[in-house]
Write a structure and sequence with these properties.
Length: 95
């Protein structure tokens, strides 16, 4: 049994080393996956932010063109008109 016991600590150390190496590889792989996901989300946010900026620029260009054409007083198609919001509602005294 002494010969078997002298091999056990060496085998146990080797097994533990392999186990720790595998665990570290799994952790590295998971961190890489998370890092890639975060980078992808940031890219998507940047794309959405850029699209928002372009929409704002387009709306400003439309408003500038409308002002040049002399229809500055007309409501923007993106902004609901306050005068239209009361239409369709009966007046309080007309019921």
């Amino acid at each position: 049994m002494d010969g078997h016991d002298s091999e056990d600590p060496k085998q146990s150390t080797a097994d533990m080393t392999v186990f720790v190496q595998n665990l570290l590889q799994q952790m590295q792989s998971r961190f890489q996956t998370m890092s890639d996901s975060i980078a992808s989300c940031l890219l998507n946010f940047n794309v959405l932010d850029e699209m928002g900026n372009r929409i704002n620029e387009l709306e400003q260009s439309i408003n500038d063109l409308r002002a040049e054409m002399g229809v500055e007083g007309s409501p923007s198609p993106l902004t609901p008109s306050k005068t239209n919001s009361g239409e369709g509602k009966p007046e309080e005294g007309s019921a």
